[in-house]
Design brief:
The complex is a heterodimer of chains A (222) and B (377).
Chain A lengths: L1 E9 L3 E4 L5 E3 L3 H10 L15 H17 L11 E6 L5 H13 L7 H4 L6 H10 L5 E6 L3 H14 L5 E7 L4 E8 L9 E2 H8 L5 H13 L1
Parallel strand pairs in A: 4-5, 4-6
Antiparallel strand pairs in A: 1-2, 1-7, 1-8, 2-3, 6-7
Helix pairs in contact in A: 1-2, 2-5, 6-7
Chain B lengths: L5 E10 L2 E2 L1 H9 L6 E2 L12 E2 L13 H13 L8 E5 L5 H10 L9 H11 L6 E5 L4 H14 L5 E8 L3 H9 L23 E9 H6 L6 E10 L12 H14 L6 E5 L6 H15 L6 E2 L2 H4 L6 H15 L1 E2 L21 E2 L4 E8 L3 E8 L2
Parallel strand pairs in B: 5-6, 5-7, 10-11, 10-14
Antiparallel strand pairs in B: 1-2, 1-8, 1-9, 3-4, 7-8, 9-15, 12-13, 14-15
Helix pairs in contact in B: 5-11, 8-9
Classes of the chains: A alpha+beta (222), B alpha/beta (377).
Chain lengths: 222, 377
């Protein structure tokens, strides 16, 4: 059976996790990065964090919160058989516009490579894969409806097909992110887990992000 | 898992060699490249003025390039696509030329370049009412999409899935790759000792997969089987591959295990083979790690078609099935002086395929790797 082992979330001003019931406020993503490092949620600094686009920053921080929630440790020298599936509404639309407007403003003579690399919808998943050492499958999927439940269902199927042993399923945009750690149920572990099917059923009729977080917090408190 | 097989029952492509699989296959066998001078947009400030584009498509007017490729292709084949087919669209930038036009002269709505908008159009072009998804994983987008289509069939989730893949040569992408110094000044020369970068290309295509049971029930002729796959990430660098090829080697091993075949069963190998120094070197290292002294014939089609980005995987899988069914390993176009590292693995001449199993691989930005095992049916 596939279960949810940890959940992390971020809005523009708040962050938290579900199983360890962490919650706090922050001013900007740079200060959140420092704060999460201070709290050992991030084990070491994320290289070039300041250069990431907003979606990549949100993704990295929500994954750190979710891994911490799941009690999964990592280090600079360890790699893990963990896959990552990302989704959102717009792909990398904002980064596409920023890159091409910058290129046109330079007289269509030179583009910025550092902006170009964020014009792939999968880049916000690639940055954390490098930092956390995820060696499993990496992909972005745009689902037509029920974004988060569809993502969870899809990530669960990838584990059942033995493509990887654990999956990070993350919805991230410039303004919000929620991340789930999925894995097979381990009957020898004492860590609390949540039923994947129950979470999918609970959130599939909710479209508002804040309401989803409140519902997840209720589930985590049970 | 149901124990059923995922088989390919229909496919078609448009490439810089022209419309249809035969034009691409014959172009590769002729050893002539489809890479040539690019006149779609100003290129004088970039590393190269060359790319591989589909002949006869007008850039920067009304419809996007990918729709100009896909509309005739899908309309021609619509009778072979059942109404209950699930759609997976694979692309990296889709209709990005619409965003270009918005920024340059505000003639289009920039949001119309989003991949979900393209998905809606492709559903209509395929005559499908059902849901679909967009898969994007850099240059492995469509090979991962094909792997997952097979996974949906083998697990019993769906019994008919179509993968549609597309990407175009645009100013947006051309300027970006030029800024990364990834383009060869002349043209891509995969596995050549004088290689110095990739050439951009464009293509579109589709692959229709069914469960073996349904294909048999509908009397479909089977092109081949998607027998297994392996997906990994280097977790190493955003734009460069892991130098030792360990990530790709892991993907190939996973794919072999998933297909329940050994390296000795592999008759030939379709490499990503972009023509960049680091990619091709990494791939040969991965091959040596997995195959050891058992040298299999390796080829890349990108010296002919250019690097078609998100469409590359699907295009290469279709050519790999052609290779299996015709028992010919296509030559690596533009290969003149084989790199020492690749000596004995790649060839500028066509060879005979010994075996009924092949592997097609792709790697991309963010360290993504995909290996797909294909079997003759």
């Amino acid at each position: 059976m596939i279960v949810i082992k940890g959940i992390g979330w971020i809005t523009k001003t708040e962050y938290g996790s579900i199983i360890k019931k962490l919650q706090g406020n922050y001013n900007d993503l740079k200060s959140l990065h420092s704060h999460l490092q201070h709290e050992s949620v991030l084990k070491y600094a994320i290289k070039n964090f300041g250069r990431f686009d907003a979606a990549s920053k949100m993704t990295c921080c929500s994954i750190a919160l979710a891994l911490n929630d799941a009690g999964i440790t990592y280090s600079e020298h360890m790699k893990h058989d963990i896959g990552i599936l990302g989704t959102n509404n717009n792909g990398c639309f904002e980064s596409n516009l920023a890159y091409f407007k910058d290129y046109v403003s330079c007289g269509r003579t030179i583009a910025r490579g550092n902006l170009f690399i964020y014009t792939l919808p999968s880049t916000p998943m690639a940055e954390p894969a490098i930092y956390f050492g995820f060696q499993g499958p990496l992909l972005y999927i745009k689902f037509q409806h029920n974004q988060i439940p569809s993502m969870l269902h899809y990530a669960g199927k990838m584990i059942l097909r033995r493509e990887t042993s654990k999956m990070i399923a993350v919805e991230a945009s410039e303004e919000k992110s929620v991340c789930f750690v999925l894995g097979k149920q381990d009957n020898t572990s004492t860590m609390k887990t949540l039923s994947l099917e129950d979470i999918i059923d609970t959130i599939k009729k909710i479209s508002d992000f804040d309401e989803i977080v409140i519902m997840l917090q209720r589930k985590g408190a049970m | 898992m149901t124990g059923t097989k995922a088989v390919v029952v229909a496919c078609d492509i448009v490439t810089p060699y022209g419309w249809g699989i035969d034009s691409c296959w014959n172009g590769l066998l002729s050893k002539k490249t489809a890479i040539g001078h690019l006149d779609r947009f100003p290129t004088e400030f970039f590393l190269t003025q060359n790319a591989a584009v589909v002949p006869g498509l007008t850039y920067g007017q009304d419809k996007s390039i990918v729709i100009k490729m896909l509309k005739p292709l899908l309309q021609k084949n619509i009778s072979s696509i059942p109404e209950d087919t699930f759609l997976i669209l694979a692309t990296t930038t889709g209709e990005i030329d619409k965003l270009e036009r918005h920024v340059l002269n505000e003639t289009t709505d920039a949001a119309s370049s989003r991949p979900d908008k393209l998905l809606e159009k492709i559903l209509l072009l395929c005559g499908l009412g059902s849901l679909g998804i967009v898969v994007s994983a850099a240059c492995a987008s469509s090979s991962i999409a094909v792997a997952h289509a097979a996974g949906m069939i083998i697990s019993g989730e769906n019994d008919c899935v179509i993968v549609v893949a597309c990407d175009s040569v645009s100013e947006f992408v051309f300027a970006g790759f030029s800024s990364l110094m990834a383009l060869d000044k002349d043209m891509a020369k995969p596995f050549d000792r004088d290689r110095n970068g990739l050439s951009l290309g464009e293509a579109s295509g589709f692959l229709l997969l069914m469960s073996e049971l349904r294909a048999s029930r509908e009397n479909r002729s089977v092109i081949g089987e998607i027998a297994g796959w392996g997906l990994t990430n280097d977790a190493n660098h955003m734009t460069g591959p892991s130098r030792d090829g360990s990530g790709l080697a892991m993907a190939i091993r996973k794919a072999l295990k998933s297909a329940d075949v050994s390296e000795k069963d592999i008759g030939c190998f379709s490499a990503h083979g972009t023509g960049t120094i680091y990619n091709d070197s990494m791939e040969i290292k991965a091959l040596k790690t997995v195959f050891g002294n058992h040298k299999v014939p390796v080829y890349s089609i990108k010296g002919g078609t250019g690097h078609t980005l998100g469409a590359a995987g699907l295009l290469e899988i279709i050519i790999a099935f052609e290779s299996l069914n015709k028992k010919i390993v296509p030559p690596t176009v533009n290969l003149c002086n084989i790199d020492n590292e690749a000596s004995g693995w790649v060839s500028s001449e066509p060879l005979t395929v010994n075996g009924s199993v092949t592997i097609s691989t792709n790697s991309g930005f963010g360290g993504v790797n995909c290996a797909v095992v294909l079997k003759k049916y």
